[in-house]
């Protein structure tokens, strides 16, 4: 199993360092309320998320248009890398690992280890100095046809 979720907190990084996550405690037993309750305010780009085709295309599907079983992948593949800040991953740098991917793979995860910086006070390292991929990997993935249904199955765990 590949665990993809992360804890939401005041330290959760956000896209571009904007639209911060805000967890507001609106009820507290310690204040005499009958229960503890919070309001969570966040952008759809906060925390673990997937960009549906609609995010980049007006006539693309939205997340709610996919049935729950769509999200279950039985044949994932994980590549583990040690990545430096600001490093771009190229096809040549991981060619051996890419060529080991089985034909039946539905989704590819590249785990860079950068997730350790997610909830630190110094959000700049995670947000602005994280790894990226070069276009040659995207071209390779299209040719390799790694996918589940109508999505290209690619994700970076950072």
From TrEMBL:
Gene Ontology terms for molecular function: arylformamidase activity
InterPro entries: KFase/CYL, KFase_sf
A single BP term in Gene Ontology: L-tryptophan catabolic process to kynurenine
Name this polypeptide is given: Cyclase family protein
Species this chain originates from: marine metagenome
Lineage summary: unclassified sequences, metagenomes, ecological metagenomes
């Amino acid at each position: 199993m590949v665990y993809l979720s992360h804890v939401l907190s005041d330290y959760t990084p956000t896209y571009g360092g904007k639209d911060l996550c805000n967890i507001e405690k609106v009820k507290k037993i310690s204040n005499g309320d009958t229960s503890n309750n919070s309001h969570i305010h966040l952008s759809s780009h906060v925390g673990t998320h997937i960009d549906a085709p609609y995010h980049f295309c007006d006539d693309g599907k939205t997340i709610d248009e996919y049935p729950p079983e769509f999200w279950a992948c039985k044949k994932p593949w994980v590549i583990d890398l040690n990545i430096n800040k600001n490093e771009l991953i190229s096809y040549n740098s991981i060619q051996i690992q890419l060529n080991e991917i089985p034909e039946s793979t539905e989704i590819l995860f590249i785990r860079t280890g950068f997730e350790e910086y997610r909830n630190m006070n110094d959000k700049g390292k995670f947000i602005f100095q994280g790894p990226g991929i070069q276009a040659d990997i995207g071209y390779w993935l299209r040719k390799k046809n790694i996918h589940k249904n109508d999505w290209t199955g690619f994700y970076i765990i950072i």
